[in-house]
Amino acid sequence: MGIFDRISQKERNDIVAALEAMAQGNTSYPIPKGGSASFAKITDALHTLQNSLHTAKQRNADYQGQIEAINKSQGVIEFNLDGTVITANPNFLAAIGYSLSEIKGLHHRTFVDEAYASSLEYRAFWDKLNRGEYDAGEYKRIAKGGREIWIQASYNPIRDSDGKPYKVVKYAADITQEKLRSADFQGQIEAIGKSQGVIEFNLDGTVITANPNFLAAIGYSASEIKGLHHRTFVDSAYAASPEYRAFWDKLNRGEYDAGEYKRIAKGGREIWIQASYNPIRDLNGKPYKVVKYATDITQQKLQNSDYQSQIQAIDKSQGIIEFNLDGTVIGANANFLAAIGYSATEIKGLHHRTFVDPAYAASAEYRAFWDKLNRGEYDAGEYKRIAKGGREIWIQASYNPIRDLNGKPYKVVKYASDITPQKRYQMTVESVMQETKSVMLALAGATSPVPWKDNTKASSPNCATPCSSRSTICAPSCRTSCRPAN
To answer: Looking at the 3D structure of the chain, how many domains does it have?
Structure first.
């Protein structure tokens, strides 16, 4: 007698009802308890089956939920093992620009360029999938109309109950825009690398790598500096200072630093660089290295030092005043202030016309003078100027328009020497000479010349020679013997 023969009809009916409920997916159907020992044994087996079905149902629900979530956020396309399309979701179709009816049954090679589709690499790709091995990465694909797109994807072989692959499901995200941005960033970085020196450091200050431009500036090879500390390139006093430790503490906090830096190249050679130290952060926003972009400005620095020395020398020997293009004073050095008798605060913001006489300041000539400077044309010469209290001074000066980086004048610098004493002496000499000339002209007018008639044979006992026909005025000692002209 079987176990079912040892239970009542009611118990049989309860068991059948429970089995039918489970068959319909109801894994929470109440299984009866109690009854005969045979019935209890059967219900225990039903409980075990129900629990297994319930677990499987929950697992399937979880899988289904995950698949639905993936379908909402990613493109999904399914292929037969021969590479033909089975189906695709709306996200994938939107990325490639096709409808499902257009691609169903098409081969995967439709979405790759022709050269790759006919390559050994492409055949190996599908052989790999047919063996049940997945493939993942970034892929260039061809959308409708020949448009190029990039996707981050995984090709996942799906196995049947016997463990044999029977289709491939591809999950994909369109990364075309990210790829373009990445290419743009990479292009910019490569461009920087061509024009600037680049060196990378760990946060402890040790060198990771450097590009050829940087290596050329410091005179080392990459193998010589890899692993060396940044302090190798600074002078020993600075390397041991609190300032240097604070510099690296700042970078470790993720704060950048930029400016002009003196550095020590191979052999102790001093160089100057215009540089920025840029902490690079990981995906969690934490700094993990420092990239330095640098330009060797040693020659410019030496040249600027030379210019500065020359300007300082001029500043010691000459008066200097700076004007905006509208003629207002920016500032002046001590020599110029001494010449005009003003203090720096008194003249700042005053117009240049303050230092010229009112008639000239109101003239067309004065306006033309400033128009010329505004065009970027310099002016030089001797100028009469009005110092404090109306005192007249003379300067030997040049007005020099200074241009910005675009070549446009933005201010005027005037270099001047006070020549007032020399000018007064010159004017005094000129005055004396004028007065002398006037006296001589007056004397000449008092003893008017006497015209004479040519008489080459005439002579006078008071003249050493006869009167000359080449003379228009008789010498005083000869006048008595020279006949006046009729």
So the answer is: 5
